[in-house]
Amino acid sequence: MGGEMTRCLNCGAERQDEVCQACGLEPAAAELALRRKLLNRTGLFLLGAIAFVTASGRYPPLELDRILIFIGVLFWFTLSLAMWLERRALRHAEVEPLKRLYYGLIPVPWLLAGLLLLNGALDRAPFSEVRSYVVGKFAMYGPVPNRRLIVKSWRDGQTFERIDVDRIDFNQFSDGDSIDIKVKYGLVGIPWIAGVTRK
Ligand SMILES: [Zn+2]
After folding, report:
1. Cα 99 to chain center, whole Å?
2. Any bridge partners for residue 43, and if so which?
3. How many angstroms separate the alpha carbon of residue 6 from the centre of ligand 1?
C-alpha cells in the first residue's frame, strides 16, 4: 500500500494499519461508506436548492436575478466539488480538507431559503408604493417559470428593475403602462416585492 495514505476515508482518523483503529473499517469499506455519505449530502443540497427557489418565489427579492446567479454559481461549484471528492476517494487520496469544505456548503441553500422566508413572512412593516412604468418584459418557461416586468427604476444608481410577477400580472401589462409597485423593506433588510397594480 505504501505510505501515501494517511487517513481513513470514512472517519478521517490517522491510519497506521490496514484496518482503521477508530471506526474498524478496512479501506474498501471506508471508501464505500464515504461515497454513500457524499450521495446523501448531495441529495440534501439539491433539496435545499429547490427549497431556495420556492422561497424566492414566495417573497421575491428586488435583487432576485442577482441572487439566482449567486445560487447558480454556488450550485455548480458544490457539485463539481462533490465529483472531485468522489474521484479522489476512488484513488484513495487525501480528502479531509475538501470534505470539510463540501460539508460546509451543504446547508447554505437551506440557510438562504430560511433567510428569505424569515425576511418576507415576518415583515410586519407597511409597504411603500412606488409608481413607475413598464419598459419591457420577458419570460422563461420550464420547470420553474420566470416572468419579469422590466420597469424604470426609482432607486439612485439603478436604471431598471426586474420585477418578478405571476402569469396574470405578466399578461396584463404592456410596454409603456403605468405601474404601482408595493415594495417592502424586509425583516433582515432584503427589499422584496409584495405585488403590483395597474393604474
Ligand atoms: Zn475510520
Report:
1. 20
2. none
3. 11
Specify the DSSP element, H or E, that contains 37. Answer: helix 27-58
pLDDT, tens digit (0-9, with 9 covering 90-100), for 67-95: 999 999 999 999 999 999 999 999 989 99
Rounded to the nearest angstrom, the distance between the alpha carbon of 10 and the centre of ligand 1 is 5
The answer to whether 74 and 49 have CB atoms below 8 angstroms apart is no
- In angstroms, the CA 15 to CA 156 distance is 60
Alpha-carbon distances, residue 116 vs 174, 176, 195 (angstroms): 29, 31, 16
For 130-159, how does the pLDDT look when each residue is reduced to its tens digit (9 = 90+)?
999 999 999 998 877 889 999 999 999 999
Q: 22 C-alpha to center of ligand 1: Å?
A: 5
What is the CA(40)–ligand 1 centre distance, in A? Answer: 19
Question: Distance between CA atoms of 183 and 120, rounded to whole angstroms?
Answer: 11
- Which alpha helices (DSSP H) does 106-174 contain, by range? 108-121, 167-172
Reported pTM: 0.85
Chain-wide mean pLDDT for the chain? 93
Residue-level pLDDT at 179: 97
